[in-house]
Amino acid sequence: LQALINNDERPSITNQKDATGKDKQGFATFDTPEAGWQALYNQIDKDKGRDLTLDEFTNKYAPPSENDTTAYLKSLQKQLKVNKSTKIADIDIMLFFSKRSKILVRN
After folding, report:
1. What DSSP state is assigned to residue 17?
2. Is 22 helix (H, G, I), strand (E, B) or coil?
3. What pLDDT sits at residue 15?
4. CA–CA distance, 55 with 83 (Å, rounded to integer)
5. Torsion angle of C-alpha atoms 18, 41, 89, 75, degrees rounded to 10
6. Which of 1, 8, 50, 57 has the most CB atoms at less than 10 Å from its CB?
7. Residues 75-90, buried b or exposed e (16+ Cβ, 10 A)?
8. Which residues contact 18 (CB under 8 A, 6 or more apart)?
9. Contact 89, 48 (CB under 8 A)
10. DSSP code of 89?
11. Contact call for residues 10 and 21 (beta carbons, < 8 A)
């Protein structure tokens, strides 16, 4: 799980609070999984204020050029019981994290 949090789930913005640097792909690195999760939580919280839909959010952070975005979005929709046009501000952030971590562990 630590590798997933510290690698696949890192925010790509390198000026994240508590980031210890960046890797070759430009992803922020963190000393602990907890710091990585907190940075992700903070970024989602910012994006809630940007009025993004689940579809827009997923395409932003899991772009089709690097991921199977369609499958990831469908999995999130199923786990969260929402459609892709649901605003992330309308999704319970703790539910989002709990479902998201289950998806990551399975994939």
Report:
1. T
2. strand
3. 62
4. 9
5. 140
6. 57
7. bbbeebebebebebee
8. 30, 31, 35, 38, 39
9. yes
10. G
11. no
